[in-house]
Amino acid sequence: MDLNKARTAVHPLERLSWIRQHGSVITEYTITTAIVITALFIPIPGVGLSAVDFVIQALNGFQDHSTVFLSMP
User: Fold this and answer.
1) How far is Cα 58 from Cα 54, in angstroms, rounded to an integer?
2) Full-prediction pTM beyond 0.85?
3) d(Cα 3, Cα 9) in Å, to the nearest integer?
4) Across the 73 residues of the chain, what is the mean pLDDT of every consecutive 10-residue run?
C-alpha cells in the first residue's frame, strides 16, 4: 500500500463541502457590520451621547482649544 495515496485520499463529499458553505461569510459580515453600526449610533447610558457624537464633541473641543492656543502671540 502506498502511504502517499492514503494520506491524500479525500472523501467525495469533502471535496464538495465548500459548496454548502458558500455565502455564509457574507451573512456573517453583514450581521457584524449591522451590530457595529448600531453600537456606534445608540446613545451610551448615563452619558446621553452615542460614540460618534462623543468623538465629534471631543474633536470640536480640541479644535476650539487649539485655535485659541495658536492665536496667542
Assistant:
1) 6
2) no
3) 10
4) 57 60 79 95 90 93 83 75
